[in-house]
Amino acid sequence: GFTEENLREYYENPPAGIDLRVWKQAQADNPNSAVFIPVPIVGFSELCRKYKCHNEQVTVHKLTLNSIAERLSELARKKTRVESKLEQYTDKMDQLTHRIVKVLVGQMVILNAGMALRPEEETIKNQLEILYNDINSPLRFQGKLTEIATLVRLKNSELSEDSKGNSGCIPQVAEEIKRFLELQQTMISEMQTVVKEDFNAINLMKESLKNVR
C-alpha cells in the first residue's frame, strides 16, 4: 500500500499529460480520500479496462446481494416456523393451565368437604338469595308498574289543557314510557338468568360435596 509520503508525492505531482488544475479538481471530487485515490484514464484501452473492472465489481455486488436476499428469505421461513411452534406451545400451556385449575378446584372441594361455609362465602350466598327473591317477587314490580301508571295519569292531566296546541307531547311521553318498560324488562330477564346460573352452580357444588362425602 501507499505510505503517507507516497500519497503526498502522488497528489502533488500530476501524471504525465494531466493538467495540474484538472488533477486538483479530481482530488477535490474524491468522495472518500481515505479509501479512494484518483487514477487517470488515458486512451481507449484504459477506458475499456476501467469498464471491465467496473462490470466485474457490479457482478460481485449482485452476487453478494443475492446471497443476502436468500439468507433473509431463509430467516423469514425460520421465523414463520418458530411462530407456529410458539403458538402450539402457547395452546398446550393454556390446556395445561386449565387442567391444573381443574385439579386445584377438585382438591379444594375435597379439602372443604364437610366444612361449613366461610364468612365471605356465606355473605355471597345471602346476597344471591336476596337478589333472587327480589327479582322473583311479583309485588315489587307490580308496585313499580302502579307508580308508573299514576305518573302517566298525572302527566295526562297536566297536558290536557295544552293537548290541542301540543298534540305530539302525549305520544312522545307514551313512547318514552314504553322504552323505559322494555329496558326494565330486559334488565329483569338478564338478572334472572344470572341469578339462576349462580344458583345452579351452587347446587352443583353442593351435589359434588355430597358425592365426596
TrEMBL record:
Keywords assigned by UniProt, alphabetized: Coiled coil, Nucleus, Transport
Coiled coil spans: 65-99
Name of a matching Pfam family: Nup54
Nucleoporin Nup54 alpha-helical domain sequence ranges: 14-149
Leader sequence residues: none
GO biological process, one term: nuclear pore organization
One of the record's GO cellular component terms: nuclear pore central transport channel
Subcellular locations according to the entry: Nucleus
Keyword Nucleotide-binding annotated: no
PANTHER family per record: NUCLEOPORIN P54
Protein name: Putative nucleoporin
Molecular function (Gene Ontology), one example: structural constituent of nuclear pore
Species of the source: Schizaphis graminum (Green bug aphid)
Keyword Transport: yes
